[in-house]
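Box 3.1. Reading complex inputs
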Amino acid sequence: MSIKAPKGTKDILPSEIINWQNIEKTANDVFSKANFKEIRTPVFEDTDLFERGVGDTTDIVNKEMYTFIKSDRSLTLRPENTAGVVRAYLEHNFHRESPPVKLWYKGPMFRYERPQAGRQRQFHQIGVEMFGIQDASADAECIFLATEFLKRLGLSDLVVEINSLGCSECRKEYKEQLKRVIAPFLGELCEDCQNRYEKNPLRILDCKNENCNRLFEEHDLKNKVSGIKLCPECSQHYSDLKKYLDVLNIKYVENTFLVRGLDYYTKTVFEIKSNNLGSQNAVCGGGRYDGLVETLGGAHTPAVGWAMGVERLNSLIPQLSNDKIDYFVVSDNKIEAVKLTAKLREKGFSAEFDYNSRKFAKQLEKAAKTSKCAIILGEDELKNNYLTVKNLETSNQEKKTFEEL
Ligand code: ATP
Ligand code: MG
């Protein structure tokens, strides 16, 4: 029986890797221009970190974590990276630095979900986190980094949706209102929504269950609730955000029903969606999480960030083709071929030779597939100390010395 990659995971093949390298390089370029520094945290953490940091009313913590026990310790493969970054932020005393602390990350995340288009069990995220700034310019900065990153990758037609969830005071009345409207048909909603009803009614708006969504429409839910009434402070913060986005020329759509899957968001939430992704249409999600650092044992620290799904992002970008290497050394003298290849690499060229010293025609055939130029090193070339360089795109052939190359 042959072994296959586990369900919900994918190999990223050499023919696809150039897109990934391009995405990661672009991320580094865009984020470092704004002085965000990369951080790499472990792919597994104490389970407790996610239970506290992601929240125990979330699907992630309730159903999707890959948890295992080693030496009586419960560990979990990270389902997201914000909790890990906050843990590192506290562990390494970043909070003693003068704010802001600006970080970005990339890497695999793990969620036990039903695999489908745009949804895997091991998938990748690139994300940014910014600590220490309450002002809405930080929220705008993060949204700018996301749109700039997408723009640099050639994607400028995505939709930025924003909303403000306010603070816990702002949400109190809205939660009650939601519960009142939902109460008459609560019994028909999915089990998750029934649990959310008491613990976190806002999350009901984020339900992906088709039956629930049909019921919301039938009962005209979205017209019966008013949206969150923001307190003066939260309201000011939200209008500041919109002002900054306007200044930055970032187009956005306000969606008063946008809530996010995780428990820790306050004030700003946003998502970036594409019409070309089918039902899993969110490429990027984020927002402000002023309570999280405190929840994980630090002092009250305002923070804002986002995470982008790299597989979904990649599916919007055309597949780039792998670069050909500079030179393929064609020779029946393997020692000389090895020597010349090494010399070429030393000079900064990419080069290879035929490990099997096959017939010249075979070597040239291989060269044409992988290389821009072939260097022919035959008997005459070796005797008279020159190289025959064949441009494999134009078939042009020239005699050159190594120095001339
Ligand atoms: P969704 O609503 O699509 O489940 P989410 O709210 O769970 O997304 P986040 O936890 O905010 O998503 O993650 C940010 C981004 O990571 C998403 O917008 C998406 O692009 C990507 N993502 C999340 N889960 C998966 C997955 N299982 N497979 C592939 N990409 C994912
Ligand atoms: Mg999800």
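In summary: The chain has a mean pLDDT of 94.
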